[in-house]
Amino acid sequence: MNTEFHRIRRLPPYVFAEVNAMKAAARAVGADIIDLGMGNPDLPTPPHIVEKLIETVQDPSTHRYSNSRGIPGLRKALAGYYQRRFGVALDPETETIVTIGSKEGLANLAQAITGPGDMILVPNPSYPIHQFGFIIADGTVRYLPVEPDDAFLEALERAVLHSQPKPAALVLCYPSNPTALTADLEFYAKVVEFCRAQDIIILSDLAYSEIYFDGNPPPSILQVPGAKDVAVEFTSLSKTYSMPGWRIGFAAGNPRLIGALARVKSYLDYGAFTPIQVAAAAALNGPQDCVKETRAIYQERRDVLVDGLVRAGWDVPVPRASMYIWAPIPEPFTSLGSVAFSKLLLKHAHVAVSPGLGFGENGDGHVRIALVENTQRIRQAIRNIKQLLSDSDKALADAADAAQMSVAAK
Q: Could you give the CA distance from residue 134 to residue 130 in angstroms, rounded to a whole number?
């Protein structure tokens, strides 16, 4: 059988696979790996949300097929959240939809709006589904810088002038995964004005809207007047309420785009399990002290990690939002690239991080460090990394030997 399936050929080898295999092998022989790689929240889901799930699942009528658009109560809860948080009015029937995590929503909307060869504009580096959702849908991708500034806007204009076919859609993600950059309403307003004039769809990923620090809540692009003419925005409960495994997300905004996503989803799923949706509505409608507590925990971890790495000799930026540190590879390891440096951290410091290359070629000079361990474990990671940095010659020699062995094996 010919195994060269068309869509599989368009997907490169998974960059994280090598590091994940090393991590598994190290743990198999008893190594204590401090895993700061995957953005997988370690905090428990707040008790009142869990209790609502348990209460609802006791009712056998909730065990039947659900609604692929999401139950009405949850769509109303999302509209209420947007009204409270952003001052944005949404019609729960036509401008909201529940997704099985924001990743599923992005991928299925890509299927709905993308034709063969359609040009999609995506920042690089960016979360992999932002580009590969469209590549799987037979689209083509042109990269933009990720910094939300004048250079981005200039690159956006060039992309429209010099792309054939003309770009059909633009993906944005602020707070950014992986870079933790944030955008303001002035930037969003300029993007909306340009895309409305050029008839370009905007897909905004706002999954980290509630993980912000220093009192600076990120805005929604839907706050911009006229944004709903061209934009749809994806959000998620995964990070806000520590519910990653529950797989509940949303899309909101332009009714035509929401309708297109709903039509595709109607062929693919019956929606998330109803008790999970009821519990998700309880999360959005209920007390929000748990969100403040989660935010405070991530901020404490951020401060401990940044301060410790800087003291260890690794100059890393202080993120204003998200649950990540986007760290440039420190001297004298910059020539290694992100995959080799990640392997080095894993082998010599027993710390797992995500190589920046996994988020696009422009990320190869960085690694992403997730704030998904408690402060005690983070301090241990800092001590291990400090030892590696203080004995860099030995680590570099080991990396060179490993590279030679890899070449020889080929």
A: 7
- Pair 148, 156: CB distance under 8 Å: no
Question: How far is the C-alpha of 73 from the C-alpha of 110, rounded, in Å?
Answer: 26
Burial, 42: exposed, middle or buried (Cβ in 10 Å; 0-12, 13-18, 19+)?
A: middle
Domain covering 47-285, topology: Aspartate Aminotransferase; domain 2 (3.40.640)
| Domain locations along the chain | 6-44+290-409, 47-285
CATH architecture, domain 6-44+290-409: Alpha-Beta Complex (3.90)
HEC string of 86-141?
HCCCCCCCCCEEEECCHHHHHHHHHHHHCCCCCEEEEECCCCHHHHHHHHHCCCEE
CA dist list (Å): 233 to 95, 131, 201, 204, 237 = 10, 16, 11, 5, 14
What pairing do the DSSP bridges indicate for beta strands 366-370 and 354-355? antiparallel
Reported as a single tens digit per residue, the pLDDT across 154-164 is 999 999 999 98
Residue 356 has what DSSP assignment? G
Q: What is the pLDDT of residue 406?
A: 56
From CA 398, how far away is CA 201, in angstroms rounded?
A: 48
DSSP at 348: I
Please name the helix (run of DSSP H) or strand (run of DSSP E) that holds residue 328, with its range, or none.
strand 324-328
- Residue pair 236/208 in contact by the 8 Å Cβ criterion: no
364, 357 Cβ separation under 8 angstroms: yes
Q: What is the pLDDT of residues 156-191, one digit of tens each?
A: 999 999 998 999 999 999 999 999 999 999 999 999
* Cβ neighbours around 305 below 10 Å, total: 25
Torsion of CA 339, 342, 347, 353, to 10 degrees: -140
